């Protein structure tokens, strides 16, 4: 079987037979890949904990007819060590993984930007450098943008009229002017709109200055936008701890 090498983040795993696992991976060059890790559930496995969710690994894989096979695995970063012991980080982390799995639809299609975004978010989440809710909200907006669902927080998402505007509508693609505003649109505070824009562009000095009320409103709008454009809510959303600062 032809061999190839790539960096990957483990999104999820499932048992296969008595000792194997199927790992769903987001690789840097080959996009989403499903691969069998043979014997990984045995205590003597040379892969050990390298193929657990949140792990960033360097892999050698053999191309298979339906599933590829992991033949080598070297750890780049065990992000799970800084995530799984903290409830706020863990619940945010599970949403990160599920989001990447959801947005990268086709297997073996390059998704380098999504891979790099996820790796960066997991690194920051694992170190506690920024609060989990901020990391998650920024990731959701930026991953949606990479996938082609970039929200507009300035010009009208429908007609392009320069902003600022007062109404936000997920179905329309973000902020909308008075003429384009559909019924039941949200009317977020201007501070919330500015915070959303800061998260989308990675302006962390501005994003971290937002007060709890602004961040709560932003989180709700992001969740509504994501749910609309992905047809349904992520399974991991209800378990989130969205309190600024975490437990």
Your description of this structure?
- The chain is an alpha+beta fold and 247 residues long.
- 33% of the residues lie in helices and 22% in strands.
- The protein contains 6 helices and 7 strands; from the N terminus they run βββββαααββααα.
- It has helices at residues 87-103, 112-127, 132-146, 190-201, 204-207, 212-229, and strands at 3-16, 20-27, 31-37, 55-62, 68-78, 167-169, 174-176.
- The strands form 2 sheets. Strands 1-2-3-5-4 form a 5-stranded mixed barrel. Strands 6-7 form a two-stranded antiparallel ribbon.
- A hairpin with a 3-residue loop joins strand 2 (20-27) and strand 3 (31-37).
- It is elongated.
- It starts with a strand and ends in an 18-residue tail after the last helix.
- The mean pLDDT is 92.
Task: Map the helices and strands.
Layout (H helix, E strand, L loop, with lengths): L2 E14 L3 E8 L3 E7 L17 E8 L5 E11 L8 H17 L8 H16 L4 H15 L20 E3 L4 E3 L13 H12 L2 H4 L4 H18 L18
Parallel strand pairs: 3-5
Antiparallel strand pairs: 1-2, 1-4, 2-3, 4-5, 6-7
Helix pairs in contact: 1-2, 1-3, 2-3, 3-4, 3-6, 4-6
Give the tags.
alpha+beta; RecO; 6 helices; NA-bd_OB-fold; 247 residues; two-stranded antiparallel sheet
In short:
The protein is of the alpha+beta class.
> How many β-strand stretches?
7
| Low-confidence blocks of residues | none
What value does the Rg take, in angstroms?
20 Å
Question: Strand arrangement, largest sheet?
Answer: 1-2-3-5-4
User: Strand percentage, roughly?
Assistant: 15-25%
Order of helices and strands: EEEEEHHHEEHHH
Question: Helix segment count?
Answer: 6
Could you tell me the mean pLDDT? 92
Q: Whole-Å distance between the termini?
A: 49 Å
Largest sheet: 5 strands, mixed, barrel
- Helix % is 25-40%
- The shape is elongated
Structural class: alpha+beta
């Amino acid at each position: 079987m032809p061999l190839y090498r790539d960096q990957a983040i483990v999104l999820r795993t499932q048992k296969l037979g008595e000792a194997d696992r199927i790992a769903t991976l987001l690789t840097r060059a080959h996009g989403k890949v499903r691969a069998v890790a043979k014997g990984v559930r045995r205590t003597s496995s040379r892969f050990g904990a390298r193929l657990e969710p949140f792990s960033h690994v360097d892999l050698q894989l053999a191309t298979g007819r339906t599933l590829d096979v992991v033949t080598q695995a070297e750890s780049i970063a065990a992000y799970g060590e800084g995530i799984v012991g903290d409830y706020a980080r863990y619940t945010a982390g599970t949403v990160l993984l599920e989001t990447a799995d959801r947005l990268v639809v086709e297997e073996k299609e390059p998704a380098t930007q999504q891979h790099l975004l996820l790796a960066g978010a997991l690194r920051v989440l694992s170190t506690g450098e920024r609060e989990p809710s901020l990391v998650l909200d920024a990731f959701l907006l930026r991953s949606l943008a990479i996938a082609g669902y970039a929200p507009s927080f300035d010009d009208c998402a429908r007609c392009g009229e320069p902003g600022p505007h007062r109404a936000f509508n997920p179905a329309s693609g973000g902020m909308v002017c008075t003429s384009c505003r559909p019924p039941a649109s949200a009317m977020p505070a201007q501070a919330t709109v500015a915070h959303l824009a800061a998260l989308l562009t990675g302006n962390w000095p501005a994003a971290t200055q937002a007060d709890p009320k602004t961040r709560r409103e932003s989180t709700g709008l992001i969740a509504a936008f994501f749910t609309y454009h992905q047809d349904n809510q992520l399974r991991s959303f209800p378990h989130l701890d969205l309190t600024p600062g975490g437990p």
